[in-house]
Amino acid sequence: MNHNLGKFVTVTIDRPLGSFHPEYKNMYYPINYGYIQGIMAPDGEEQDVYILGVEVPLQEFTGRVIAIIHRFDDVEEKWVVAPENMTFTKDEIMEAVYFQEQFFRSEVGEIWER
């Protein structure tokens, strides 16, 4: 099990809900997306995070890591963070992140359960 599951993290949002990708102009973000300062991912960048359960654009968010998305054709994983008392099924998570994960072979590996 990933030792980050269940931990609280603070996410800096660089692609808020309702925004578009800076390079891929037709990629719309239906959820908040950002990174965790100081935690480096295997791609050499800071750890990327999808935020579920918040329906307004954010600049920063503190929540619990509820799932890890594994990509089979990329070097990085994506973390899924949600408000403290919210959980989602693997299917709900994949549906929420499909806008970006459709371009990769990925799955929700571990999921946090209280």
Question: How is this structure best described in words?
Answer:
This protein is mostly beta strands and 114 residues long. It has one helix at residues 90-101; strands at residues 8-15, 32-40, 46-51, 60-71, 77-82, 106-111. A hairpin with a 5-residue loop joins strand 2 (32-40) and strand 3 (46-51). The longest helix has 12 residues, at 90-101.
Which key terms come to mind for this protein?
globular; five-stranded mixed barrel; 114 residues
Query: What is the molecular shape?
Result: globular
Largest pleated sheet: 5 strands, mixed, barrel
- How is the largest sheet built, in terms of strand order? 1-2-3-5-4
**Number of distinct beta strands:** 6
Cα(first) to Cα(last) distance is: 14 Å
Uncertain segments? none
Structure class: mainly beta
Helix and strand element order: EEEEEHE
**How confident overall, as mean pLDDT?**
94
What integer value in Å does the Rg equal?
13 Å
Percent of sequence in beta strands: 35-45%
Proportion of helical residues: 10-25%
Number of helices, where a helix is a run of at least 4 consecutive DSSP H or I residues: 1
Give a brief rundown of this model.
The chain has one helix spanning 90-101; strands at 8-15, 32-40, 46-51, 60-71, 77-82, 106-111. By secondary structure, it is mainly beta.
